[in-house]
Amino acid sequence: MPNLNLGEVLEENQFVEKIYQTSGQEYWSKAIATLSQFFAEYSLNYLDSLNKFANTNILLTNSPQLISNNFSESFSDQTWLFTTSQSFLLPSTFSSMPMTHIVKLDHTNAFTNKLFLIFISQEFVTLFFSDDHKFLFSLHPEPISIALLSLKQFITDQEQLTLLNQNLAHCPLVVPSYKVFSKFALALLIQSFPQELPIPEVREIDTIKAIAHEVKTPLTTIKTLLQLLLRREDLTQPVRNRIEKINFECQDQIDRFNLIFEIVQLHKQIVLTDSTDLAEILENNIDTWQKQAQRRQLNLKIDIIKSLPLIITNKQLLSQLLNGLIDRLTRSLPAHSKINISMAIAGKYIKLQFQSEANPRDTILIHKAIGQWLMIQPETGTLSLSLMISKVLFELIGGKLTVKTNPTLASYDGEILTIFLPIKEN
Q: Is 272 in a helix, a strand, or coil?
């Protein structure tokens, strides 16, 4: 049995998009629902074209659930299911279909705790890959060809391999038209899933509150004493500079725990949204962000679009979340790294993007989750909100947050945090 890691192979391809998942198979479910909706709409608009190429759609997957809920039967003529055992992994509702082929895999196969889907038609091709940490997708033939070559190595039955090659020969991989790309990307973006704020056990919330209180109280006292020291006229400049630096660090920590403390209170409150001026929020925070970046020898560049349309969100919470993201970036990157903030109008949304580029000569400080709410940098002990909670909070105020690594370089060198905020309708 070949020792292949399909996820690693696909990640290296420039035509594959990667999204980090905050819970098991989060984006997999969204992508499957999007594909079903997209294909149904596409079939109505291009029915003549699809009928012209009847009996040519091919679906390859290792998810038995897609077969048991008639997902594959609704738009696939040839279905290939890769599984370790037909008898105990297939759901009880499964009934054998003439055009469904079972590819038996070894129990130690490379797809344990992973899901994949490849859909091939005459009009477009689609690839999904999901594990516990990331979701990959592509509509380009190049990575799909690579994935097919990998999958063929798992087929030990020569008759099955010949049949699959014959089926693929009748359905060549094509680059979809720009309409397919744009419509599918939009469908994936606007796919709406009700998601409530996950509430941890009371013990965890109480612990967070206690930590926030125990940190804020002494820091506030220290900050008061520092301000009294700064009023003295007999301080030398080096001493004054050091006291001011300590004062800034205290304020940063107080602000960070204020945010954490207020966020854990949200499960008791209703989050209200209203028309908000995003440019005003950014202008009010730019100076603070620049100071944070300068203290850590980072280069922060922001490009604000003039005359931005109003958005619908919660102004106070959005400002706090943006401050939290900047704080996370500035504390994760080594000195002399870059942070670029850009904006664009994306249909009914304003797209606000934070892209970090780390200095390749230094080590990036990685965050690790502790519970559902917080993340920690083991090297520094710095606490911050988890990305899972941040994503849910953005959804609560009407927006969306996506996180992925920089796709322009081969190795991990930073993150791209993209926020979509709904524009107020006239």
A: coil
Greatest alpha-carbon span in the chain: 90
pLDDT, tens digit (0-9, with 9 covering 90-100), for 25-59: 677 888 888 887 777 666 555 544 444 444 568 88
Q: What CA–CA distance (Å, rounded) separates 165 from 324?
A: 51
pLDDT of 357 > 50? The answer is yes
Architecture of domain 270-426: 2-Layer Sandwich (3.30)
C-beta of residue 78 within 8 angstroms of C-beta of residue 59: yes
A 10 A CB-CB count for 161 gives 15
The two tokens of residue 195 are 């998601």
d(CA 426, CA 306): 19
In angstroms, the CA 314 to CA 273 distance is 4
Token code pair at residue 104: 């038996």
Where do the structural domains in the chain lie, given as residue ranges? Answer: 6-190, 197-269, 270-426
What whole-number distance in Å separates Cα of residue 294 and Cα of residue 81? 54
Query: Which residues partner with 341 through β-bridges?
Result: 302, 354
pTM of the shown model: 0.49
